[in-house]
Amino acid sequence: MHGQLLVVSGPSGSGKGTVVEFLKKTPGYDFSVSVTTRAPRVGEVEGVNYYYITNERFEELKQAGELLEFTSFCGTSYGTPVSEIKKAEKLDRALVFDIETEGAANVKRLRPEAILVMLIPPTFQELERRLRGRKSESEEKIANRLAKAKQEILLFGNYDYIVVNETGGQEEAAKVLDAIVRAKICLAAGGPKNKADEELLAFVSKFETKSHPDVVEKFFCN
Asked: I want to staple 198 with a disulfide (CB 3.0 to 4.6 A). Which of 60, 80, 112, 192 is the partner?
């Protein structure tokens, strides 16, 4: 998996954080580390959970174009350093990015061979149920997240694959992500060498974005 980049995006409530946690249990992966201006929480480790920086340093990185993407929420800023892409060149593992659509587009621009996967819930109704089930945000914030989700889903055509994260199916979704990476490596090595490779490629092809032109309609109508 040397140097392979896997970018996972999805609206808040898609469950991508949990899916990525399952993927961390699979050998052969490393994970991009973001910067944040908030203080470390109990148990968090510098360089593992985040790089903890000042607001001034964050602004310097942003102004210098050294962030793939960035966002601010409740007075705290988060971003993904461009330098994280360079990590892949030194790895014998795939490097996973859990980032938003803007960052995904920037990774693809810098590394066209990167794999972009959009993770979505089965329906918009399920997405809303998940967000409300957190019981940690105001109606205004939920409405904002739902509106943003609609915008993000419409960008699915920019992604190579789209994976539906069924309720309770996070581990299965992680297995699909792993299969996608292994299929890309298989193709890069010259294509299938045996029946197992052929079955892997056939399985992964079912998640190709081009195979789901009606995904947006199904997401909003079901």
From this structure: 192
| Amino acid at position 67, single letter | L
Q: What's this model's pTM, rounded to 2 decimal places?
A: 0.85
pLDDT, tens digit (0-9, with 9 covering 90-100), for 60-110: 999 999 998 888 867 889 899 988 888 777 878 899 998 888 888 888 988
Show the domains of the chain with their CATH numbers. Answer: 5-32+92-221 (3.40.50.300)
What CA–CA distance (Å, rounded) separates 136 from 12?
A: 13
Per-residue exposure over 61-84, b if at least 16 CB sit within 10 Å of its own CB, e if not: beeeeebbbbeeeeeebbbbbbeb
Residues 204-218 pLDDT 10s: 999 999 988 888 788
Residue 91, classified by CB atoms within 10 Å of its CB into exposed (0-12), middle (13-18) or buried (19+), is middle
